[in-house]
């Protein structure tokens, strides 16, 4: 069975008055008769009208107060989000605010079509109206180069605007619009417009001549409507009892005293009423100095009535014969006098014959068929899904903590290493940013005093352009700078934990710019295990966790953290976003290649290493106590415990405990914060490591130790058990000082156990930062993307999956 083409037609509005919105509704109806599935999208519409036609409308919600460009971006964001459920095969747009969508949709495999009606000239417009038109032209120039097909409604529009704004002629074809919609309107009762027509018929009955000024009456600007008064005055001076019918109310313009009674304002009649007035008129005038097409000119000629127009715009393409074109107002008056006066028989026969043949010259059926065939061609020649990637994606990475922290704790290490690799992801453009609490906005990172590049962190190339004077707008400029073909909304990525109470504000900043928001959730320890945390951290988590539930994407570092997240959401009776999953952190230590297990360092000393920040849940107190018991129990062993980690909560108590142990002759050294090279030396000198932490989101030091070929003693529960299961770890109850002491003794003395653990860790498959960044980058790239399957795969690197 042949698949129907899905077409979505988008316009700012769909209202009942004839105009572009009604033209597009005609197209929707015609496309449906050809077997297409048609839907509409608009900012506003006449519900009764669209219901009567049986169309579904996607109402685009746009916040008040946005400028034209921001409205375009918001509209695109809304539409692409709606396409996640079902996207069309082709999208047809009527112009603003759907230009941006039409320029980006082809990259998503949805070709776009734009019937170009042009942008009006600025002459005579108010300052506000001029600004609007100038912005419209700017938006056109930014987007028309990337729209699949542009169908200008006249050669005049094509040459003067379409090709200039597009910059090339590919995909451009003139399709003149139809003009016979009035003739094909439903028949009305004969007396429907008697009240409107009665005074006009009375004038004709006494020999008067009726002239109609076609189009809305505008005294300023390109419509040039007051020129019709000059023509009327000249005709009356020539002895012709002419009256001028004006589409407008008397209050909208001032009639010169000498023409009082000769100008007939009739308001804004319906389509049927206007057709009836045209039939009563003897002559039409169009005084406009610019028209992309001029529909009223064609409509009146369709019923055999002559119309005079200036040589301007698309008039030469629409007028029945060149004779009806006028070089100036004097020539218009002379030709009008010839058509209406006693010498009407002197009018050349050629233009009158052309006028008689005009009816049916521009049928709507031909226009709609041309548009339909263009739609079919676009749909048939577009692969779905697209064979090529959908463009690069801009990702802002919030590194507010990493740029300030001189140390390299777990979350900071993850943020630095991941960002460094994301910068190399083939589908992402990564920009490092920080939150400015004073301006409540994001800015680039000031390279002076920044610690972002510490510990092999990322090089902040954008930060080189940091300017204190414009820091608050530099990020906005980057957001608005991507290639217009880029279809995917940018992402605010938050790999850190925000405990200063500003997460709501940070997310609001991103939402205001139509960004998706993604985060790494490391753990919920400060919520479920408050006894291990300070009041400051507990209070910070209370403001941090609720907004996390409203992220577009949450990536936890372990299944344990994911389970805690689901528990938290259930307790709050909140729904999690669709994009929630666990991705293990990598095992790789900094930039260091994976190490094979090596023989135990020579010499009598048995060195044990513990790498962990100093805080209560890390369980250093029990570790020091367990090590002391081991030393007392085995005085025959030369044991040394080295602690590496930054000072946080509990540091003073630990320092006192270590001092007491040293006074007793127990060999414990706390080295604080080390460089990567210094830490590598400590790993190399150690027989094994111990990680006594009770609660973790992941436990990065466990995996880093295994990466460097060192077995680990860790907790037999929580996420530590999840990490230990594939091998290389000796698990125990770290809450039991004796059990922890026994585990250290076993691994310090049992060479067979050590060899078995070394063999297990050598056989383990462990990812590095490149693997992790590729997986994370693909998840970011896929957020809100109808084609999330990445076209990029990580390169296979020897020695990463397992050691030989």
Automatic annotation (TrEMBL):
Pfam families (UniProt xref): Glycos_transf_1
Gene3D superfamilies: Glycogen Phosphorylase B
Molecular function as annotated in GO: glycosyltransferase activity
InterPro entries: Glyco_trans_1
Glycosyl transferase family domain mapped to chain residues: 206-337, 603-758
Coiled coil: none
GO biological process, one term: lipopolysaccharide biosynthetic process
Keywords: Transferase
Protein name: Glycosyltransferase involved in cell wall biosynthesis
Protein source organism: Nitrospirillum amazonense
């Amino acid at each position: 069975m042949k698949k129907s083409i899905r077409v979505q037609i988008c316009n700012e509005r769909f209202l009942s008055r004839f105009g572009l919105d009604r033209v597009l509704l005609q197209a929707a109806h015609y496309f449906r008769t050809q077997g297409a599935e048609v839907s509409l999208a608009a900012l506003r519409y006449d519900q009764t009208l669209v219901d009567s036609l049986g169309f579904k409308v996607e109402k685009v919600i746009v916040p008040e107060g946005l400028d034209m460009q921001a409205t375009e971006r918001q509209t695109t964001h809304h539409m692409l989000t709606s396409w996640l459920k079902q996207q069309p095969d082709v999208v047809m747009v009527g112009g603003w605010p759907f230009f941006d969508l039409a320029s980006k949709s082809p990259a998503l495999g949805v070709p776009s079509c734009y019937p170009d009606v042009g942008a009006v000239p600025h002459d005579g417009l108010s300052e506000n109206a001029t600004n609007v038109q100038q912005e419209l032209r700017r938006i056109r120039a930014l987007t028309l180069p990337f729209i699949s097909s542009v169908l200008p409604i006249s050669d005049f529009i094509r040459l003067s605007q379409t090709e200039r704004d597009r910059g090339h002629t590919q995909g451009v074809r003139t399709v003149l619009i139809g003009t016979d919609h009035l003739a094909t309107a439903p028949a009305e009762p004969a007396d429907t417009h008697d009240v409107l027509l009665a005074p006009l018929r009375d004038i004709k009955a006494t020999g008067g001549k009726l002239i109609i000024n076609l189009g809305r009456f505008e005294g300023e600007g390109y419509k040039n409507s007051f020129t019709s008064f000059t023509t009327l005055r000249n005709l009356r001076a020539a002895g012709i009892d002419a009256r001028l019918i004006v589409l407008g109310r008397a209050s909208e313009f001032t009639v010169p005293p000498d023409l009082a009674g000769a100008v007939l304002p009739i308001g804004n009649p319906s389509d049927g009423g206007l057709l009836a007035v045209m039939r009563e008129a003897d002559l039409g005038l169009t005084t406009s100095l610019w028209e992309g097409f001029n529909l009223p000119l064609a409509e009146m000629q369709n019923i055999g009535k002559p119309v005079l127009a200036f040589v301007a715009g698309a008039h030469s393409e629409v007028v029945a014969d060149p004779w009806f074109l006028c070089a100036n107002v004097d020539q218009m008056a002379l030709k009008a006098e010839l058509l209406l006066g006693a010498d009407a028989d002197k009018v050349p026969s050629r233009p009158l014959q052309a006028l008689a043949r005009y009816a049916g010259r521009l049928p709507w059926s031909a226009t709609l068929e041309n548009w339909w065939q263009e739609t079919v061609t676009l749909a048939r020649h577009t692969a779905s899904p697209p064979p090529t990637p959908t463009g690069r994606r801009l990702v802002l990475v919030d590194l507010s903590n990493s740029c300030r922290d001189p140390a390299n704790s777990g979350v900071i290490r993850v943020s630095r290493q991941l960002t460094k690799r994301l910068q190399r992801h083939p589908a992402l453009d990564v920009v490092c940013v920080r939150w400015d609490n004073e301006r409540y906005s994001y800015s680039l990172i000031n390279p002076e005093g920044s610690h972002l590049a510490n510990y092999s962190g990322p090089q902040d190339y954008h930060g080189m352009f940091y300017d204190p004077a414009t820091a608050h707008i530099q990020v906005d400029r980057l957001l608005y700078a991507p290639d217009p073909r880029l279809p995917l909304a940018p992402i605010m990525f938050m790999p850190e934990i925000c405990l200063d109470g500003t997460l709501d504000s940070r997310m609001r900043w991103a939402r205001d710019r139509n960004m998706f928001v993604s985060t790494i959730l490391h753990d919920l320890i400060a919520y479920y295990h408050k006894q291990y945390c300070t009041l400051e951290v507990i209070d910070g988590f209370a403001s941090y966790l609720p907004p996390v539930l409203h992220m577009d994407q949450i990536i936890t570092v372990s299944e344990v953290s994911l389970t805690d997240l689901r528990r938290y959401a259930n307790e709050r009776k909140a729904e999690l976003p669709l994009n929630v999953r666990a991705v293990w952190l990598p095992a790789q230590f900094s930039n260091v290649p994976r190490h094979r297990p090596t023989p135990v360092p020579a010499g009598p000393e048995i060195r044990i290493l513990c790498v962990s920040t100093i805080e209560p849940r890390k369980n250093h107190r029990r570790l020091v106590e367990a090590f002391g018991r081991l030393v007392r129990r085995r005085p025959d062993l030369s044991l040394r415990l080295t602690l590496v980690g930054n000072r946080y909560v509990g540091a003073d108590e630990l320092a006192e405990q270590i001092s007491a142990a040293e006074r007793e002759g127990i060999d414990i050294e706390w080295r604080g914060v080390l460089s990567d090279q210094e830490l590598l030396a400590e790993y190399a000198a150690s027989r094994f490591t111990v990680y006594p932490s009770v609660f973790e989101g992941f436990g990065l030091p466990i995996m880093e130790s295994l990466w460097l070929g060192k077995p680990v003693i860790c907790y037999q529960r929580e996420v530590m058990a999840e990490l230990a299961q594939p091998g290389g770890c000796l698990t125990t109850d770290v809450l039991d000082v004796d059990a922890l002491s026994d585990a250290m003794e076993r691994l310090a003395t049992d060479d067979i156990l050590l060899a078995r653990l070394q063999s297990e860790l050598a056989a383990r498959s462990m990812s590095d930062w490149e693997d992790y960044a590729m997986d994370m980058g693909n998840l970011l790239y896929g957020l809100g993307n109808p084609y999330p399957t990445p076209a990029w795969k990580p390169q296979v690197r020897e020695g990463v999956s397992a050691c030989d």
